[in-house]
Amino acid sequence: MASAMEALVLYPATHKTAVVDVPKPMPGPGEVLVRIHAVALNPVDSIYVTHPLATQKQRVLGTDFAGVVEAVGPSPIPNSPAVGTRVAGFVQGACSVNELPGAFAQYVALPADLVWTVPKAMSLESASTISMCGLTAAQGVFARLRLPAPFPVPDVYKAKTTTNADPVNILVYAASTSLGMYIAQCLRASEKASGRKIRMIGTASQSKHALLNAPPYSYDAVIDYRHKDWPKMVREATTGGNGVQYAIDCISEGATVSGVESTFEASIHGEGHFATFRAPGGAGGGYDVGSLKVKPTYGAVWEGQGVEVDYGVFKLAPNAAAKELAVEFYQYLSSQDGNFVPNPVRLMPGGLDKIVPDGFALLGSNMVSARDEGPARTEAHMKPISGEKLVYVIEEE
Ligand SMILES: NC(=O)c1ccc[n+]([C@@H]2O[C@H](COP(=O)([O-])OP(=O)(O)OC[C@H]3O[C@@H](n4cnc5c(N)ncnc54)[C@H](OP(=O)(O)O)[C@@H]3O)[C@@H](O)[C@H]2O)c1
Questions:
Q1: One domain for residues 145 and 77
Q2: Which protein residue's CA is at the shortest distance from atom 41 of ligand 1?
Q3: 18 and 112: one domain?
Q4: Where does the record place the Enoyl reductase (ER) domain (predicted)?
Q5: Staple 67 to which of 34, 226, 307, 354, CB 3.0 to 4.6 Å?
């Protein structure tokens, strides 16, 4: 077996990147080694190249991957996927101070309970889009908003009990983001689990309304966030016309947060109703929670890995409940036989060497809401990202 592999690495001191040979990882106890076939891109992959957190000489980039189990480490856990199983998962890449593995490579080793089994009918390209934003969505809906889940959750996330059978109104701001498309599926799964109707109101560009009105998202109303009166239009779209009881801001940058907060019903106060995905303040989404009566709760998907993540400005402690939720969610994905629908894929030409010049150019280097019309490139694969995931093939299946 070769002892080296190709990987896309970041040199934090210079912010430069390169595809180079690095040592091939060995699976540790309870881990699997995955031969990677496809990787999907997330905004954090490029943010921490422009603004590195890592201080090591080099770090392997990349979070989302799908591939085939090549080896099982010593002391396998019960139900560890066998060699040859098609799996998907996510790792940290260079999004931390402490050293953790990256996915933009030929191989990755990670805990066997943090991968899920890809259904036969799903391509690995499609599967690579799910793990990171899918888990982020599950954390937002089931752990932070504590809506009923279609799988067992740790006690700290148990759903709030309610005897109210009226439909609950929920806004998903930026429903056409990768994250938003998984949030909608978690909400529809929650509705099925609890039997309580969710009236789902989304915001997105007009060109994405037909996609979002159709299954598996099946929005009850979709509003164009470019309309200056969109918060009023959201309130008017709720049952009773008084505003929402829950909201999820898939952008969580600057004015999106106060705009979303203004769509709440007047009786809603405090925490537990509003989920955001970038932290407040300048190092995050640049919003201020001080003046908001409905307080957004932020969470980072990395908690699901159950290990300490050092962000420089703060550390996420190992979180056993978040890991348990991740494991349950991935078992749920494995059992869905394709019913959890991947994001539409934009297959990007080239391999590891094209991720930075093409993919990261499209992702930009900080705010999603500040992406301009995209880089001045005319190729079809370089149009702005809208309702899809950028995917690179590392090796054909
Ligand atoms: N906390 C966490 O652990 C975590 C995990 C994953 C992602 N995130 C964060 O979640 C955010 C979304 O990530 P993603 O990968 O889902 O994004 P993405 O798919 O790359 O986002 C692209 C979408 O953003 C929409 N958009 C851009 N500006 C907008 C605005 N001002 N208002 C409304 N929509 C706007 C566009 O909608 P239209 O095409 O309809 O115009 C487009 O479809 C990022 O900030 C990411 O870093 C956080």
A1: no
A2: 205
A3: yes
A4: 3-368
A5: 34
> What does the pLDDT read at residue 377?
87
pLDDT of residue 322: 98
Average pLDDT over residues 23-52: 96
- Atom 2 of ligand 1: nearest residue by CA position: 300
Instruction: Confirm whether 25 is domain-assigned.
Output: yes
Question: What pLDDT, on a 0 to 100 scale, did the predictor assign at position 1?
Answer: 60
Q: How far apart are CA 147 and CA 157, in angstroms?
A: 9
CATH number of the domain within which 285 lies: 3.40.50.720
- Map 18-74 to HEC letters: EEEEEECCCCCCCEEEEEEEEEECCHHHHHHHHCCCCCCCCEECCCEEEEEEEEECC
Q: The domain containing residue 194 runs over which residues?
A: 132-305
Atom number of ligand 1 nearest to Cα 302: 3
Residue 191 lies in a domain: yes
- Binding-site residues, ligand 1, Cβ < 6 A: 42-44, 133, 136, 174, 176-179, 204-205, 208, 225, 250-251, 256, 277-278, 300-301, 368-369, 385-387
Are 104 and 140 found together in one domain? no
CA 75 / ligand 1 centre spacing (Å): 39
Residues 196, 283: one domain? yes
> Looking at residue 382, what DSSP letter applies?
G
- Residue 29, pLDDT above cutoff 70: yes
- Please give the pLDDT value at position 373: 59
> Are 294 and 274 a contacting pair, CB within 8 Å?
yes
Q: How many domains does the chain have?
A: 2
Which pLDDT does position 301 carry in this prediction? Answer: 96
